[in-house]
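Repro:
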Amino acid sequence: MGDIQPAWLRAVLPLCLLATLERGESYGYALFQQLEESGLGTVKGAVLYPALTRLADDGAVEVRWAPGAGGPGRKYYRLTDAGRERLARERRAWQEFRTAIDGTAMLPAGAPAAPHEQENR
């Protein structure tokens, strides 16, 4: 995927994190890798960890520490029931937003306006 605008990434990162955690508990570095593999590119720690903290503060994810295999402990993140409900809401909202964007920004030049726009002329 091409360059993703930083503001776009920050806006959708909570949704992407919730969706990634829906697959199962994970820790920071693994989340970096999963997001990159999904096509979001490299997400900086200064963006990822505050987003995870906000999700935890909101009750959407639970955090637990576990000993690392031969290294320092790891902070694991897990989706809560509230996080699953939020994910469902945000998926619906994202689909509505995507439809709106596709209906405006993705129209080729000279394309006719949507029917409700023609009525207002």
